[in-house]
Write a structure and sequence with these properties.
The protein is mainly β. Helices cover 0% and strands 43% of the residues. It has a 4-stranded antiparallel β-sheet, with no helix packed on it.
Length: 252
C-alpha cells in the first residue's frame, strides 16, 4: 500500500499457504517474503511487482524467515530455524539464492542490514533475556546494543544509521522503542496501551510504521498498521480490516 494507507492491493494468491515477513528491495521492484512449503519447511520467495511473477530462491533449507535485500542489492540476509532444537541462525546468500551460508556462531532471528550494508542487526537470547546485537558482515565485531526487558525481535535501522527501533514488553503490553544506534538513550516512542510492535523506519527517517491494537485492544484479529512521527506525535492509523495487519516494512 501507499505510505498514507491508500492503494492497498494483494500480491500473493495462494489462499491455502502462509506468507510472512515481506520486505521491499532497495530498488522498489521486488518484494521478498517467507512462504510455507511443507511441514518444517519455509522457503524464501522474490515477487516482481511489475508483472507479479514469483521466483523461489531456496530449497528445503529449513524454517526460513525475515529475508531482506542488502542496500547494494547484491545479497540477502535471513534467519534459518532448526525445528529439532529451536535454534535460529543468521544467514546470508546471494541475491539469486545461491551460496547461502551462516555467519559462524551467530544464533538469532529477524536480521536487518545497516544502511551501508557492512553490519547486520538481529535479536538473540533465551526467553526473557532477548536483546539486539550487531555483527559485521564478515563475522567480526559482535556486540550487544540494547538493554530492554522482553524484546521480541523485529527491529529496523534508520537510513542515516543514527537510530534503531524495536519493540519490548510482555504480551499485550508491548511498546515500540527508539534508541541511538549504539543502544544509548532508549525511549518509548508509542503511546502506552496499544500493544505496539514490529516497527519500520520511513526512508526519510521522519516516521515509524508499526502494528498496534489501539482501536481493538484484546482482539487477536484486531491489529492494524499505524504510523507515528519519531518525536512521538501525530499517530495515524492506516488500515481498517477484519483481519490482523502486521509486519509492515517501508519501501524506498
Amino acid at each position: 500500500m501507499n505510505a498514507d494507507g491508500s492503494g492497498m492491493r494483494r500480491l500473493t494468491t495462494e489462499d491455502n499457504l502462509r506468507h510472512f515477513y515481506p520486505s521491499l528491495a532497495p530498488d522498489g521492484q521486488r518484494v521478498l517474503y517467507a512462504g510455507f512449503r511443507e511441514q518444517n519447511v519455509y522457503e524464501i520467495y522474490s515477487l516482481n511487482l511489475n508483472d507479479g511473477s514469483v521466483d523461489q530462491l531456496t530449497n528445503r533449507m529449513g524454517v526460513l524467515s525475515a529475508p531482506e535485500v542488502s542496500p547494494d542489492g547484491n545479497s540477502i540476509t535471513f534467519a534459518k530455524g532448526n525445528p529439532n532444537n529451536g535454534q535460529f541462525q543468521v544467514m546470508v546468500m546471494d541475491r539469486d539464492g545461491e551460496n547461502a551460508s551462516n555467519i559462524p556462531q551467530i544464533f538469532g532471528w529477524d536480521p536487518t542490514w545497516s544502511p551501508n550494508g557492512k553490519q547486520i542487526l538481529y535479536a538473540s537470547g533465551p526467553d526473557g533475556g532477548v536483546q539486539l546485537f550487531v555483527i559485521n558482515r564478515n563475522g567480526n565485531g559482535l556486540h550487544q546494543v540494547s538493554n530492554l526487558p522482553a524484546i521480541r525481535g523485529r527491529s529496523d535501522w534508520s537510513s542515516d544509521g543514527q537510530w534503531i527501533v524495536t519493540y519490548s514488553g510482555p504480551a499485550w503490553h508491548r511498546e515500540v522503542y527508539m534508541m541511538n544506534a549504539d543502544g544509548s538513550n532508549a525511549r518509548q516512542l508509542t503511546p502506552s496501551g496499544g500493544n505496539s510492535q514490529g516497527p519500520s523506519f520511513s526512508p526519510d527517517n521522519k516516521w515509524v510504521a508499526f502494528t498496534a491494537y489501539f482501536d481493538k485492544y484484546g482482539d487477536n484479529h484486531g491489529c492494524e498498521i499505524y504510523v507515528i512521527r519519531i518525536d512521538g506525535s501525530d499517530l495515524r492509523r492506516l488500515t481498517n480490516n477484519d483481519y490482523c495487519d502486521y509486519q509492515p516494512r517501508w519501501g524506498p
